[in-house]
Specification:
about 375 residues, alpha/beta, four-stranded antiparallel β-sheet, 14 strands, globular, binds pyridoxal-5'-phosphate
Length: about 375
């Protein structure tokens, strides 16, 4: 199986560098904050740490059901992070000879997994047109055809931070419906909108729509490793079968924490925390870009704790990121690891002193690189 380059790069360096600016969520919530939101830690101290319900407690799935109109608990499965959710869907639906259509740029987990399962990956791109990220419809229509079993996109998208219009979503969903393909919409960034209304979900836009999400991004709680799948019950039954073999189920304390986080009031509080942090950080990011005018162009996100910078140099993004890591002890994600050469992805979800210094170092690295190509 080929390496998941971005994750391996992060795992190798994120705890070694002084400034990890390769992150992609907001500064995480603490257990104390969750206790203040209603997590009963004192009571939990006496809970025996046996196995939890392997597809998620009914109580948690009942709460999640509210996010997906018309869903029953059988439409839902709780997983170890959104990444396990995506993995289980791919394992359940793909095999040799299948075509898998992948939106690019993206979080490229579902580049390596479908290929390892023997499927053919056909990308369709988001392209920057007149200051906005647009679907390349010709590519989409050739990627999603009769042989396509599964389509993956992230909306809001990592790394562009762009959100699909409702009309574009309907067009994608009806293309999938027409050819009989499953549509997997990774909505882990939904709720992390900065200056716009909540993005729409694909849920309900077709018989074969599957949505994955989790606590890692918009909720700001990656460390508890809770994600979920919402999909047709026959697909969820298949993913549960895979789950039994892989990790059995999520951990008991995480399930209990998730019940607090996804309850309606707390969910809105956590989303508001995310929005406030990102809104406060944007002017700092704009200052950073202004200082680098002539070196880079900044693409601001509509949602998510990441931004993209485009640079005009010929240097490969892996090389540029490596220089910044070595010279500035600061980690950023090379665009090529997200399917977008000539760009760097930078974290904007940190608390301010860290953000300011991290950006200062990236700026210094970019200027040094431009002066010494
Ligand atoms: C689009 C997308 N999906 C899934 C993940 C992984 O999420 P989790 O931490 O919930 O496994 C990420 C992480 O960056 C992501 O950006």
């Amino acid at each position: 199986m080929e390496a998941f380059e971005m994750e391996r790069m992060q795992s190798t360096w994120e705890n070694v560098v002084q400034y990890d600016m390769s992150e992609s969520g907001v500064a995480p919530v603490t257990l104390r904050e969750l206790v203040e939101m209603g997590f009963d830690l004192e009571r939990f101290l006496d809970v025996p740490l046996g196995y939890s319900q392997s597809n998620g407690t009914v109580e948690l799935r009942e709460l999640l059901r509210e996010h997906y109109p018309g869903a029953s608990v059988d439409h839902l499965e709780v997983t170890n992070g959104t990444s396990e959710a995506n993995y289980l869907v791919a394992l359940s639906l793909l095999g040799p000879g299948d075509v898998f259509a992948l939106q690019v740029p993206n979080y490229l987990q579902l580049w390596g997994v479908p290929r390892a399962l023997g499927a053919e990956v056909r990308p369709f791109h988001l392209r920057r047109v007149d200051g906005r990220w647009r679907v390349d419809w010709d590519e989409l229509e050739s990627a999603i055809g009769e042989k396509t079993r599964l389509v993956y996109l992230s909306n809001p998208n990592n790394p562009t931070g762009s959100v699909l219009d409702r009309a574009d979503m309907e067009r994608i969903a009806s293309r999938c419906e027409k050819v009989g393909a499953y549509l997997l919409s990774d909505e882990v960034y939904r709720g992390a909108e900065i200056d716009r209304e909540r993005s729409d979900s694909f849920w309900g836009m077709g018989e074969r729509v599957i949505v994955t999400s989790g606590l890692s991004k918009a909720y700001g709680i990656p460390g508890v490793r809770i994600g979920w799948i919402a999909g047709p019950p026959d697909v969820v039954e298949k993913t549960w079968t895979q789950h039994d073999y892989l990790t059995i189920g999520p951990n008991k304390m995480s399930d209990a924490i998730a019940r607090v986080a996804v309850s309606p009031d707390n969910r809105e509080k956590l989303y508001a925390r995310t929005r406030a942090l990102l809104k406060a950080n944007l002017p700092v990011v704009r200052d950073f870009a202004r200082d680098l005018e002539g070196f880079v162009a900044l693409y601001e996100p509509e949602a998510g704790a990441i931004c993209l910078v485009r640079y005009d140099d010929e240097v490969p993004s892996v090389e540029l990121a490596e220089r910044i890591r070595v010279e500035q002890s600061t980690l950023v994600v090379p665009g090529s690891q997200l399917g977008l050469e000539g760009h760097l992805r930078i974290w904007i979800g940190a608390k301010e002193p860290f953000l300011v210094e991290g950006l200062r170092r990236i700026g210094a690295g970019l200027k040094l690189s431009a002066a010494n190509p």
